[in-house]
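A reminder from the course coordinator: this example appears on the midterm review sheet, so study it carefully.

Given structure:
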């Protein structure tokens, strides 16, 4: 196992996803605005934790990740928040560990001999998160499944799209930020892992609006234990 980290970066899209963590994280030693982002600083278990509210979507998430690396020197990136379920195997309020991400609206298939979602110099459409961090998360979140997440700038509510993403990529959940976070972190050699709680399934947007707060509360205790282990 790699050495313990001292500075952790956390990328979260929305206030609704951040609030439950902030309510239990203790005293905030830093709150500042960096461009379009709000950054909060905490000290947990002898580590500095910089939490950024990125805003929704891959571009904001990628930019926020870059900012954490450049401005705060984070040694590890953790993305948490809510996600949608693509299969009945993963239910609302379930928590999952993201082991791989497919950026499914990235498509060079028209000009290169590659599959939809495949990046140049990558062997697979599935971009892996950090294996050591996955194992650490599994020790804490013993009942949580390791899944593939389909990520793109679209809120997925249509049943046909959910079925296609599951069939084409084996993805069991979807979100709108993790691909951007992973790609940026990977480019700098920063280990990355994502933890998600399911806020919606077949109920789509209506279910999301009803359950997003409850879903955001599901991973808080596990999240703090994982930070302690880092």
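Designed residues:
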């Amino acid at each position: 196992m790699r050495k313990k980290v001292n500075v952790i970066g956390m990328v979260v899209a929305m206030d609704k996803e951040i609030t439950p963590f902030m309510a239990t994280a203790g005293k905030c030693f830093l709150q500042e605005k960096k461009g379009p982002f709000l950054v909060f600083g905490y000290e947990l278990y002898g580590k500095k934790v910089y939490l950024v509210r990125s805003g929704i979507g891959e571009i904001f998430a990628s930019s926020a990740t870059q900012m954490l690396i450049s401005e705060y020197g984070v040694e590890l990136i953790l993305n948490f928040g809510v996600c949608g379920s693509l299969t009945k195997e993963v239910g609302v309020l379930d928590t999952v560990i993201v082991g791989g991400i497919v950026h499914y609206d990235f498509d060079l298939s028209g000009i290169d001999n590659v599959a939809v979602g495949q990046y140049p110099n990558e062997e697979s459409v599935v971009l892996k998160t950090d294996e050591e961090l996955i194992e650490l998360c599994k020790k804490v979140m013993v009942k949580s499944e390791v899944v593939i997440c389909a990520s793109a700038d679209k809120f997925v509510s249509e049943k046909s799209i959910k079925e296609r993403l599951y069939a084409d990529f084996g993805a069991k959940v979807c979100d709108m930020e993790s691909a951007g976070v992973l790609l940026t972190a990977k480019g700098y050699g920063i280990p990355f892992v994502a933890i998600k709680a399911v806020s919606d399934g077949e109920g789509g947007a209506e279910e999301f609006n009803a359950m997003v707060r409850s879903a955001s509360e599901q991973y808080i205790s596990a999240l703090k234990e994982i930070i302690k282990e880092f």
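The beta strands are 7-12, 28-34, 37-44, 47-53, 76-85, 95-103, 127-128, 145-151, 173-175, 192-200. The first strand starts at residue 7 and ends at 12.
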